[in-house]
């Protein structure tokens, strides 16, 4: 009696041809998996290759120019290797070999690399355009701390608007950033808008950015600064100029949400010793400014979306959500009290 042949015993080749159906699926899936990270990295709110700012656009142009130049050299080397290995195996004279080395091994790569280097040097001043640039109308002061951002807007009329963990810019207007650190080295980086700049204790560095496309982008601390370094991010919102001016005007006065039981609990627990809320007795400066915090997109330096549930969780468990955070936990507060504080904070629009 003939034994039944299992599927695993079937030959992979029939009449000398590969069994394409058995391999096409894995090969196609492998190609998609290999290519998907490359495609995903070219877009998004934190991609330098999906620019929304003048400086970021030039960084992307430099990247693609360098990539194309390197690809040209690589393709020529591979083509020459294939030609020598497969199609022309006959020996060549010593004189021909010398010419090949001179032109293909010296002149061609040196010419291409010199052109790319010259282009990079020509582009470099525009990547840091503040030096020699006329004074901008708006200056934004950013101070980095473990693990949050203190933000102050200095308007041309001399008024100041204090915020935290969020940066807003007008489309088409260059903004000067004044960057400082309160404890250790941090790095301010909004990939979609421009290059990074370090924040160094005892020193003020300057950076200017020009947003060209309205939208919400992600900024990040790009210098390791401790356990919660990866959780030290911020939202960067590029707005149309009229909307941006209206936003500044609205934040130049105390929030209409001031008052109520939530505020009483906030002050009773001593939160005002660290946090400032404009228009209230809370005038602390060691923690993020919470004036108009309810209108921000995120809380905890882009750790969570800004909603009452997330606010209550962060008030109760800041240390577990953000390791080594200097904010104490408030586990003794009841669920009702946490909800009152969260509702009050969300109401600070």
3D architecture notes:
It is a single chain. With 349 residues, the protein is α+β, with helices and mostly antiparallel strands. The protein has helices at 20-40, 54-87, 94-127, 241-250, 261-268, 308-316, 318-321, 335-346, and strands at 13-14, 17-18, 138-145, 148-154, 160-164, 166-170, 174-181, 186-189, 197-199, 205-210, 215-221, 233-239, 298-299, 304-305. The strands form 4 sheets. It has a 5-stranded mixed sheet, with no helix packed on it. A 5-stranded mixed sheet has the order 6-12-11-8-9. The chain has a two-stranded antiparallel sheet with strand order 1-2. Helix 2 (54-87) packs antiparallel against helix 3 and helix 6 (308-316) packs across helix 8.
Concise structural overview:
The chain has helices at 20-40, 54-87, 94-127, 241-250, 261-268, 308-316, 318-321, 335-346; strands at 13-14, 17-18, 138-145, 148-154, 160-164, 166-170, 174-181, 186-189, 197-199, 205-210, 215-221, 233-239, 298-299, 304-305. By secondary structure, it is of the alpha+beta class.
List keywords for this structure.
five-stranded mixed sheet, 349 residues, single chain, 8 helices, elongated, disordered N terminus
Profile the largest sheet.
5 strands, mixed
| Strand ordering within the main sheet | 5-4-3-7-10
Number of helices: 8
Helix content: 25-40%
Shape from CA axes?
elongated
What structural category do the secondary elements indicate? alpha+beta
Low-pLDDT runs of 5+ residues are 1-25
N-C termini distance: 84 Å
């Amino acid at each position: 009696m003939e034994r039944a042949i299992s599927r695993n015993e079937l030959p992979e080749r029939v009449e000398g041809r590969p069994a394409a159906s058995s391999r096409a699926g894995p090969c196609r899936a492998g190609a998609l998996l290999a290519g998907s990270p490359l495609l995903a990295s070219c877009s998004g709110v934190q991609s330098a290759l999906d620019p929304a700012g003048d400086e970021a656009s030039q960084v992307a142009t430099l990247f693609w120019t360098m990539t194309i130049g390197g690809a040209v050299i690589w393709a020529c080397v591979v083509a020459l290797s294939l030609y020598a290995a497969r199609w022309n195996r006959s020996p060549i004279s010593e004189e021909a070999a010398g010419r090949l080395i001179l032109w293909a091994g010296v002149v061609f790569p040196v010419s291409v690399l010199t052109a790319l280097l010259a282009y990079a040097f020509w582009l470099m001043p525009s990547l840091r355009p503040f030096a020699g640039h006329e004074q901008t109308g708006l200056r934004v002061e950013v101070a980095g701390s473990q693990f949050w951002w203190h933000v102050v807007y200095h308007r041309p009329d001399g008024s100041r608007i204090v915020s935290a963990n969020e940066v807003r810019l007008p489309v088409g207007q260059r903004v000067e950033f004044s960057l400082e650190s309160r404890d250790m080295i941090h790095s301010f980086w909004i990939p979609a808008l421009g290059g990074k700049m370090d924040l160094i204790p005892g020193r003020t560095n300057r950076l200017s950015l020009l947003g060209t496309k309205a939208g919400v982008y992600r900024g990040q601390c790009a210098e390791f600064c401790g356990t919660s370094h990866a959780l030290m991010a911020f939202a960067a919102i590029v707005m149309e100029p009229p909307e941006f001016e209206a936003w500044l005007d609205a934040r130049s006065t105390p929030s209409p949400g001031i008052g109520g039981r939530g505020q009483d609990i906030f002050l009773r627990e001593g939160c005002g010793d660290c946090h400032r809320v404009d228009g209230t007795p809370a005038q602390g400066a060691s923690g993020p400014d919470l004036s108009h915090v309810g209108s921000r997109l995120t809380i905890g330096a882009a750790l969570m979306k800004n909603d009452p549930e997330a606010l209550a969780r962060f008030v109760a468990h800041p240390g577990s959500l953000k390791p080594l955070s200097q904010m104490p936990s408030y586990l003794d507060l009841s669920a009702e009290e946490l909800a009152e504080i969260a509702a009050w904070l969300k109401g600070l629009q």
